[in-house]
Fold this sequence. Notes:
The protein is an alpha/beta fold. It contains 13 helices and seven strands. The chain has a seven-stranded parallel sheet with strand order 3-2-1-4-5-6-7, with helices on both faces. Helix 2 links the parallel strand 2 (32-38) and strand 3 (59-63). The N and C termini lie far apart (58 Å). Residues 318-324 have low confidence and may be disordered. The chain binds NADPH dihydro-nicotinamide-adenine-dinucleotide phosphate and retinal. GO terms for molecular function: all-trans-retinol dehydrogenase (NAD+) activity; estradiol 17-beta-dehydrogenase [NAD(P)+] activity. Keywords: Lipid metabolism, Oxidoreductase. Pfam families: adh_short. NADP(+) binds at residues 11-39, 65, 153.
Amino acid sequence: IPGQKVVLITGCSSGIGLRMAVMLAKDEQKRYHVIATMRDLKRKDKLVEAAGDTYGKTLSLAVLDVCSDESVKQCINGIKDLNNAGIGLVGPVESIPIEEMKKVFETNVFGVIRMIKEVMPDMKKRKGGHIIVVSSVMGLQGVVFNDVYAASKFAMEGFCESLAVQLLKFNVILSLIEPGPVHTEFEAKMIQEVKQRECPGADPDTVNYFKNVYLPSSIDIFEVLGQTPDDIAKVMIEASRPRFRNLTNPMYTPIVALKYADETGGLSVHAFYHMLFNLGPLMHVSMTAMKYLTYNTASLVRLSAYYEKHKTNIVVSIYLFCYN
Length: 324
Ligand SMILES: NC(=O)C1=CN([C@@H]2O[C@H](COP(=O)(O)OP(=O)(O)OC[C@H]3O[C@@H](n4cnc5c(N)ncnc54)[C@H](OP(=O)(O)O)[C@@H]3O)[C@@H](O)[C@H]2O)C=CC1
Ligand SMILES: CC1=C(/C=C/C(C)=C/C=C/C(C)=C/C=O)C(C)(C)CCC1
């Protein structure tokens, strides 16, 4: 259909990819034709059901594995390319085999690069196109026990930040989406991974911090700050014009912003240490306080001015702010 934009999305069997595909396909003005891709079509039922009568009209299905050159080459013909496929990995570094780490980089880093390499030459030739990459807040700020996953998202951010400048010369836009915690299979897989991981090679203290300190905090953070895949899809669709960075969760933004408030990096390292090891249940209270505070934009602005001025621990500053 003339004027209709073709959007190719990777990783549509579940989560953010699935909801993005459905939301674009259901666009009332029918502006998009979505090619929803997944590596295994046996997993298509949830998507087909959610797509309803858009399936076969504004939404079609295709097979694509971001880890395979051949699969990517066979599938590509898109105008707008949304790189969403990704996998998580948590655990003490000592206990994770290098091979497992490489799988994360193969999917989250080389998977994205492979897709971009394939769609980019045609976009440059046409002098138009939009590449969207689902990164993470962990592409900007590491989180304890997520070392390898954060490293993979940092790698992608560096790649995209560099490439965006060149692409702009060809009128091709590159955008990153940086969600905080989102309730998808990613969350369930993470919780299961922490519970099941045997952590060979890690000492008992480390295993204890991973299972009995990190896990409850992490579950808590998902509970208090977690967004839905629809929230993420809306951020992209409702943006009036494309931006390079798109943090989707204003409640998580202060956590990412800490590193910019102190160039020595000490503030974020010590604030996270304090939140994880000293605050325990208090963190739940302060996160909840932050949730209510950030619902109000004016208080968010005041809050960030407060950080700026006092360059202090985020949780402590929230308390001080509450009493001010
Ligand atoms: N959930 C969260 O808290 C956050 C997630 N993200 C990012 O969002 C993106 C989507 O994750 P989310 O929806 O949450 O998680 P899900 O696990 O629900 O979805 C991930 C999708 O990626 C697909 N996938 C994995 N490997 C490949 C591959 N080699 N080729 C093609 N598809 C593949 C999965 O397919 P299959 O069904 O075949 O496994 C699945 O459809 C990821 O990049 C993730 O890093 C970012 C911030 C937070
Ligand atoms: C435990 C812990 C934290 C956990 C953050 C988490 C669990 C973030 C999850 C983000 C996700 C899932 C991104 C996906 O790409 C904080 C807030 C840094 C503070 C220090 C203690």
